[in-house]
């Protein structure tokens, strides 16, 4: 790695040194302004940093040398960039976005809105009636190939430039355009019908006169909308009332954030307590909502009722909102609309993904431009040899049109049809069931990948959590000792019942009171500590038990006792939560005897091993956030009135708020090395006075509209001090099936694998080892946490000295390195056999993909299963989504969707190989088909005094590129050089594909030579062997041309398929049958004579036989690697 870093000491540059010294007098902290920072040379002496560690902050940032923009740049694509910039600027000017503002929304009074808000209509159409034709034409003719043929076809309207029949140029172009327009029109009509269906859905709107039915598109800000169970929420609304007695409901958000777990939403307390639904119009109330934002996980607002004395103010947060496109899962909800149409969260978060263009398409585009250049050069040579006689400029353009078949219009059609065929084959492969190809334009990318960036949870692991470990500091319980915990719980609650006390008071007083004898104290202490830990885990969560079957059997008037007898013993009880970790913890407490049986907004109930029901009132809940990395709950036990604050979270977040302990950090590391996800559980007992004081400050902070989050977190943090550590839990996320052999196969195929995860460093490292992402023999370099430029510099120097070791780095350190040493870091990381990035945000994942694409120019693939992986999947050259526990959002956003991680091996090594090899062969063969006939035309023109007269006219040219050669050429999509079993057995064969040798300027040049040789032989042979009439030249050369193409297809096929044989004979039969109708071009009497047959045979043999001999000799003396394996 050291060799790749330039040694460039800073002090050798006197100019820089002068600036450096001058800047020391006016130094200011520019840590957050990377544009003002220099790229420090990594080999700089570490002593410099020790002498004055802040001097490097003021150095100017090195600028990347910009490419000069001259005429060459303009002709090679700069014109497209300039045109695009002008169009974007014009579009921005024409449709300036209205500034989004906060709003006051009066309940049931849309007319009181201060501004006009967008219509609540869904519109996914790309075009309208007037823009459809221009829009589709622009999308097609922005490609060089189509634009070229349009210019050539239009030139045929000029009499002086006309070469042949108009239909020979316009028919193929018109066919391609017609197919494209029909496809776009069908898609557009489908989009329109889907939009119309969604916009026409009827909803009940509450008015002064009662309920009225309104269309979804007619809903306005301020309307009171009623949404039934299993109905889509039409706009962003604030939740006012529900038919559920608990004052809450569940919604499904999988269409918004990709998560399959139900979310609990809470109605506004003031409106939920109103006696009747119609009372919503008898009160004077409004909602103050923040301006529309992208963030679907946060909301700030206030509810105010003016007609009460005093006025009622209620803070609103994300739990009071129902975003558009979510589904009501329980009860009936009534809400007031606050955002509509393009201001809803779902529309604001919808970005149209960029169309991905495969590397093979870009390579073919370059070859097409090379062919165009050759065409122009050939035309100029003809004019020069002609001696610039007459109107030479007109003749030049005629020659360009005459040689236009050198660039075949059928190239795009054949490739697009081939891509569709590859997609169909992938979806029909029984070895990878459930695979869906969502982007049919880039199947060849699967065969060119160098970097695979994968998520961890749900991708490499199953996202099925199993409780494995409970650690109390002095005692540790594993899966084989869970029965001891169960006996402790049974014993603890048995003692509680005997003493007629509650579970909390008994265990807590037992642990606090001094005991007379030491032995009972130890036993009592362990038992009470286990009891406290299990109780904390059973109480501190957001899990809700759901009893679907009893809702329909029992009416709404069942008693609490009946509900306890029936619901709590229901075998079909399921748990709903936003995290599978929490469900695993609650299921574990159930297995050891403490069962969560009921929960609503204000209370939750636990059932003891003896069947006793314990009720706890929920006073406050502090949900988990990515910033705090912990969640808490304050509960009051109903029988004793004791108030307890429970909290659980990541060890990093919890360590600073716990009482002193000497075991937590060590045990967290031990569990992480076992691959377990750890949670620290703690508690704090509160007095009534302490809680009332906290509640007042907390409610006041929640009502603030300025910096609400900061004020709320400050109040909560005042409570999070000196908490008592109860236990450490370890949950295992099991590996997906066959992850280890799949990763080994990919590594042997030369693919470098990077794991990007939001999990902690220790767990990520352990999963990397257990999944064999990092082999046992490889060293792991853990990049130490860095926070500034000096630390990053020193750590990169340390990493540079390591060789052939895997890198593990956290998201924060990665951000610092990329800010100051982007190029150096990526260069070093790309030399690692594996990289693990932990604590990564979704944005960072996408940023890493962009960096690899930008710095390495290699093809990248991203694979994930959750909504947080979508940005990474869309940024990669090839995105693969897995349908997993976290929903379908990643699967729907991806180019390819699979059901299991192990399927990626076959998808890349087998289908990726076949798609790339077939498309490369197909593209070059179609170009050969155009070059050979252009060579014949050039030979013909040069012999006949450089006349710009076509050799073949009318239907012969159309038939040549369609029915006479199309089927055999297209049958190349069935060819394969290696059997699937062999490709999987020897994944090393994949490495050759990434070098791009199947389609390069070298292979293209070989095909050019073949075309020149065969075209020359066909034309000169026909001219030598013809006897009397020119029409015989046409008959002999054209027939030999068709036979040569059929033999060349046979020469290139490596594995025969019965459809290939059928295509060969079908094309030959079509040509022979059509000879009877081509008397305009052929002499029918001549083509039935033996002279015609032997002349055609001789010319065909001379054009093809040398190529067969060369292929035989090459396979014998220099066979490719795959043929060695096949033999």
From TrEMBL:
Molecular function GO labels: ATP binding; ATP hydrolysis activity; ATPase-coupled intramembrane lipid transporter activity; magnesium ion binding
PROSITE patterns found in the cross-reference section: ATPASE_E1_E2
Keywords: ATP-binding, Golgi apparatus, Lipid transport, Magnesium, Membrane, Metal-binding, Nucleotide-binding, Translocase, Transmembrane, Transmembrane helix, Transport
Domain P-type ATPase C-terminal: 892-1119
Transmembrane segments: 167-186, 370-390, 396-415, 926-946, 952-974, 1004-1024, 1030-1051, 1058-1078, 1084-1110
GO BP: endocytosis; phospholipid translocation; retrograde vesicle-mediated transport, Golgi to endoplasmic reticulum
E.C. no: 7.6.2.1
Domain annotation P-type ATPase N-terminal: ranges: 111-170
Broad enzyme group: translocase
Main location: Golgi
Positions contributing to ATP binding: 455-457, 582, 624, 648, 677, 757-759, 839, 845, 868-869
Needed co-factor(s): Mg(2+)
Chain residues that bind Mg(2+): 455, 457, 865, 869
Active site positions, chain numbering: 455 (4-aspartylphosphate intermediate)
Highest taxon above the source species: Eukaryota
P-type ATPase A domain location: 210-345
NCBIfam families tied to this protein: ATPase-Plipid, ATPase_P-type
Family: Belongs to the cation transport ATPase (P-type) (TC 3.A.3) family. Type IV subfamily.
Protein name: Phospholipid-transporting ATPase
Organism, as annotated: Coregonus suidteri
């Amino acid at each position: 790695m050291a060799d790749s870093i330039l040694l460039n000491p800073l002090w050798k540059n006197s100019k820089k040194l002068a600036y450096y010294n001058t800047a020391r007098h006016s130094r200011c902290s520019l840590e957050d302004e990377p544009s003002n920072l220099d790229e420090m040379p990594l080999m700089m002496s570490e002593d410099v940093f020790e002498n004055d560690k802040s001097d490097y902050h003021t150095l100017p940032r090195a600028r990347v040398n910009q490419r000069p923009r001259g005429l060459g740049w303009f002709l090679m694509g700069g014109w497209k960039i300039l045109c695009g910039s002008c169009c974007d600027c014009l579009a921005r000017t024409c449709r300036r976005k209205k500034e989004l503002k906060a709003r006051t929304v009066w309940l049931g009074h849309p007319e009181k809105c201060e501004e006009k808000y967008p219509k609540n209509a869904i519109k996914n159409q790309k075009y309208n009636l007037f823009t459809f034709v221009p829009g589709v034409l622009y999308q097609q003719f922005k490609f060089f190939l189509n634009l070229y043929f349009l210019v050539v076809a239009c030139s045929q309207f000029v009499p002086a430039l006309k070469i042949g029949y108009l239909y020979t140029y316009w028919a193929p172009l018109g066919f391609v355009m017609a197919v494209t327009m029909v496809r776009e029109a069908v898609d557009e009509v489908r989009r329109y019908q889907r939009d119309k269906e969604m916009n026409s859905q009827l909803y009940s709107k509450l008015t002064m006169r009662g309920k009225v039915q309104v269309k979804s598109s007619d809903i306005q800000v301020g309307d009171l909308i009623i949404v039934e169970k299993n109905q889509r929420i039409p706009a962003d609304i604030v939740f006012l009332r529900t038919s559920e007695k608990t004052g809450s409901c569940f919604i499904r958000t999988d269409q918004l954030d990709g998560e399959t777990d139900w979310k609990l939403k809470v109605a506004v307390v003031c409106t939920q307590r109103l006696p009747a639904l119609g009372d919503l119009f008898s009160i004077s109330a409004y909602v103050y909502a923040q301006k529309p934002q992208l963030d679907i996980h946060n909301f700030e607002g206030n509810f105010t009722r003016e007609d009460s004395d005093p006025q009622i103010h209620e803070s609103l947060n994300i739990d009071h909102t129902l975003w558009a496109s979510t589904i009501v899962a329980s009860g009936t909800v009534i809400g007031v609309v606050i955002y509509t149409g393009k201001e809803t969260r779902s529309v604001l978060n919808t970005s149209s993904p960029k169309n991905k263009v495969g590397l093979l398409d870009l390579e073919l585009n370059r070859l097409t431009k090379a062919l165009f250049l050759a065409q122009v050069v050939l035309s100029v040579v003809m004019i020069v040899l002609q001696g610039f006689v007459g109107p030479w400029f007109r003749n030049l353009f005629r020659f360009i049109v005459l040689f236009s078949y050198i660039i075949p219009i059928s190239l795009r059609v054949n490739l697009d049809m081939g891509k569709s065929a590859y997609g169909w084959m992938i979806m029909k492969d029984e070895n990878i069931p459930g695979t869906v190809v969502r982007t049919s334009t880039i199947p060849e990318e699967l065969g060119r990948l160098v970097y695979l960036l994968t998520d961890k949870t749900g991708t490499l692991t199953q996202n099925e959590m199993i409780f494995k470990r409970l650690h109390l500091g002095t005692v540790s319980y594993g899966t084989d000792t869970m029965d001891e915990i169960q006996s402790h719980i049974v014993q603890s609650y048995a003692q509680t019942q005997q003493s007629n006390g509650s579970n909390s008071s008994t265990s807590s007083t037992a642990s606090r009171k001094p005991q007379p004898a030491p032995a009972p104290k130890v036993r009592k202490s362990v038992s009470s500590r286990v009891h406290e830990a299990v109780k904390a885990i059973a109480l501190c969560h957001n899990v809700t038990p759901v009893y679907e079957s009893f809702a329909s059997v029992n009416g709404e008037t069942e008693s609490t006792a009946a509900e306890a007898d029936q619901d709590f013993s229901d075998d079909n009880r399921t748990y709903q939560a936003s995290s599978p970790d929490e469900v695993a913890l609650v299921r574990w407490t159930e297995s050891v005897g403490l069962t969560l049986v009921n929960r609503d907004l204000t209370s939750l109930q636990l059932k003891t091993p003896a069947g006793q029901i314990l009720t706890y009132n929920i006073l406050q809940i502090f949900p988990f956030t990515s910033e705090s990395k912990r969640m808490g709950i304050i509960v009051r036990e109903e029988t004793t009135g004791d108030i307890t604050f429970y909290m659980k979270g990541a060890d990093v977040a919890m360590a600073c708020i716990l009482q002193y302990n000497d075991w937590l950090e060590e045990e967290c590391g031990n569990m992480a090395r076992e691959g377990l996800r750890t949670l620290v559980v703690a508690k704090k007992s509160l007095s009534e006075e302490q809680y009332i004081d906290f509640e007042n400050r907390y409610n006041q902070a929640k009502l603030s509209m300025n910096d609400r989050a900061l004020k709320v977190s400050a109040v909560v943090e005042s409570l999070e001090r000196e908490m008592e550590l109860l236990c450490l839990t370890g949950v295992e996320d099991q590996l997906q099936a066959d992850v280890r052999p799949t990763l080994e196969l990919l590594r042997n195929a030369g693919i470098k694998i990077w794991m990007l995860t939001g999990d902690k460093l220790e767990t990520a490292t352990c999963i990397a080892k257990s999944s064999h992402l990092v082999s046992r023999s490889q060293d792991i370099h853990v990049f130490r946490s860095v926070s500034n430029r000096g630390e990053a510099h020193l750590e990169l120097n340390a990493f540079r000295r390591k060789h052939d070791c895997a890198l593990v780095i956290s998201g924060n350190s990665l951000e610092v390195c990329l800010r100051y040493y982007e190029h150096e870091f990526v260069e070093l990381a790309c030399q690692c056999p594996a990289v693990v990035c932990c604590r990564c945000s979704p944005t960072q994942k996408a940023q890493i993909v962009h960096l690899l694409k930008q710095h390495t120019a290699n093809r990248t693939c991203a694979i994930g299963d959750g909504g947080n992986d979508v940005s990474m999947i869309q940024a990669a050259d090839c995105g693969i989504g897995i349908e997993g526990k976290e929903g379908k959002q990643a699967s729907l956003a991806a180019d390819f969707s699979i059901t299991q991680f192990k399927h990626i091996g076959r998808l890349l090594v087998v289908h990726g190989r076949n798609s790339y090899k077939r498309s490369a062969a197909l593209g070059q063969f179609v170009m050969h088909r155009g070059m050979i006939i252009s060579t014949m035309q050039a030979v013909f023109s040069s012999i006949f005094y450089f006349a710009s007269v076509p050799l073949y006219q009318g239907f012969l040219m159309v038939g040549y590129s369609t029915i006479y050669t199309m089927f055999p050429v297209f049958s190349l999509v069935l060819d394969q050089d290696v059997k699937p079993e062999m490709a999987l057995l020897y994944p090393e064969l994949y490495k050759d594909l990434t070098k791009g040798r199947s389609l390069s300027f070298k292979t293209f040049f070989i095909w050019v030579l073949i075309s020149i040789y065969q075209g020359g032989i066909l034309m000169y042979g026909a001219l030598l062997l013809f006897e009397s009439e020119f029409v015989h030249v046409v008959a002999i050369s054209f027939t030999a041309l068709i036979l040569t193409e059929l033999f060349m297809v046979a020469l290139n096929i490596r594995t025969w398929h019965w459809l290939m044989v059928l295509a060969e004979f079908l094309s030959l039969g079509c040509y022979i049958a059509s000879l009877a109708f081509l008397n305009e071009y052929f002499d029918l009497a001549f083509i039935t004579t033996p002279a015609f047959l032997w002349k055609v045979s001789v010319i065909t043999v001379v054009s093809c036989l040398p190529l067969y001999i060369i292929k035989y000799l090459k396979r014998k003396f220099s066979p490719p690697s795959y043929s060695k394996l096949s033999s």
